[in-house]
Every structure is written in C-alpha cells, then in structure tokens.
Amino acid sequence: MCPPFERLRRQVENDIKTFERDPVTKQPSTERCVKCFARPAAGQPPPLPSDVRPPKVLVKTLDYLITNILSHLPSSHAFLWDRTRSIRQDFTFQNYNGDETVLCCERIARIHILSCHVMASIDDPDYSRQQELEQFTKTMQTLLDLYDEARTRNKLYRNEPEFRAYHLLSAINDAEADRTVQLLPPDVFYHPHVQTALKLRALAQQNNQTGRGSRNTAACLNAFAAFFRALEETEVPFLMTCLLETHFVDIRIGALRAMARAVHKKSRPYSVSHLARLLGFDDIDSAISFCETCGLNVI
C-alpha cells in the first residue's frame, strides 16, 4: 500500500503515523504503511511508475482503510483524509477511469460525508469543515463526470441515483444543479433518493439568505419548519441526513431572521422549547446556546 522508497524516507524523517505502526512493538509496519498525499510542485517531474499504485491495489488499500481505520474516527480523521486523497491522486496520475475509479470515489465520498457528521461534535482546532467539503466536492465532480462518460457508452452504475442525490443536497443554492438533474434519464431522475433530495432541497432553500456567496432566489419557500419536520417523519437515508447537517446553521439563522419579522419585542416571550422542536435541535440547551450565539436574550 506504500512504495518502499517513501516508506523508508518517512521512517528516516520520523513521519510514520500511529496507524502505520505495529500495535505491539510500535515499530513501522510494512503491512500497515499507506502512501501519503504529496502536493505536486511546479516543474516537478511525474512520479516513477514504481511509486504509483495500480487500480486493484488502490481498491485493496481503500478496503484496508475502511475495515481497519474508519472505525477509529474521530482520532483517525486526519489520517483518512490524507490517505484517501492520495488514492484519488494515483488514479489521476494514471488517467484511469475504469470501474475501480468509480468504486473508490463513491466510497471516499461517503467517508467525507460521515466525517462531517462525526467531527461536527468534536472540538478539534486542526479540523476544517470547509476543507472536508472541498475534498468531497472534488470527489463528487470526478464521480459525476465518470457517470456522464459511462452514459455515452450506454452504461449505468447502480449507485448513481444515490450520489446524484448527494450532489443536489450539497449544492442547495446552486440553480445549475436543478437544470442538470432534469437532463438525467427517467430511471435516475425518478429514483426515490433523487426525489427525496429534490423535496428536501426545496424546503431548505431560503429567500432571506445573504452573504457567503448566497443569492436571493425569488421562488424560495422559507419552509424551515417543514424541512426539519420532514427529516423526522420521512425515512431519509443516514448519509443524506449527515450531508444536510452541514446546512443546519444557515437554515436556522435564516429561520430566526424570518421569525424576527413576526415576533417583535412587544410580543410575549417565545417558548424556547417550541423553538427547539421547530428547528430540530437535539435538546433545549442546544437551542439556548444557538440563540445566545445569535444575540437573542434567553430568560
């Protein structure tokens, strides 16, 4: 899973991670070392063929990471983030677009979604959700291009509807995603995953969201209560919910901005327990903390 030269170099540089050491002797293990991501520098020659893992080895490497490392989240997040990026890099070096590339990109995209959910409750100064979503977006772009290219050969991957749904939910404010999904074949467009994503996407969109690259859209619903109610009442797949979780803060801020027009200072105090149910908070304390962060007084 790791070229010999890199393994020896990192051993000399004392850059062998915990997950790459023997659990008993704590020494670097040939069977556990995984090739790390190397940012290509300007003018740098391409890697040697012996340093690029072939597709079958990349699949086995990802199998190893999922079987042995993924369960150690959140402590293994940085290791997973780097090593999965290296797997995609090796596919790029070979310009290989076969079934192994699709399989690995699908599984890596799921890892990024799961990591967003797990790391959301962890106070880790080294973790950046923006970087996590950036790598997820790049993985998804590769995957969608592979799906489109396969369709020109009359080939359909069975997991395409699942990842088309993820794309719709990750780009809630991107109108181009709506146009793209309408051009898909009926068996993809009318798949339950895609239809669920379209419903949740419509409910999550707002027309009072400004800044941070958002644009006001005339036909948006501001249906924040219906959005969180739909997450509770419908059977939304787990990873789809994890991806929507990345939008919760923006949706809740937009909801409070909309409610501020109706619930003014002269009104009776608004029940925080009702607000917690309305905006899908896990408990009242979470709702209070969020309101105080937004500058609202809680009695």
Automatic annotation (TrEMBL):
Annotated InterPro entries: SAC3/GANP/THP3 (IPR045107), SAC3/GANP/THP3_conserved (IPR005062)
A Pfam family that the UniProt record links to this protein: SAC3_GANP
Annotated GO CC locations: cytoplasm; transcription export complex 2
Coiled coil: 133-160
SAC3/GANP/THP3 conserved domain segment(s): 1-298
Gene Ontology BP annotations: mRNA export from nucleus
Keywords for this protein: Coiled coil
Gene3D superfamilies: 1.25.40.990
Domain of life: Eukaryota
Protein name, entry field: SAC3/GANP/THP3 conserved domain-containing protein
Species of origin: Tortispora caseinolytica NRRL Y-17796
Lineage: Eukaryota, Fungi, Dikarya, Ascomycota, Saccharomycotina
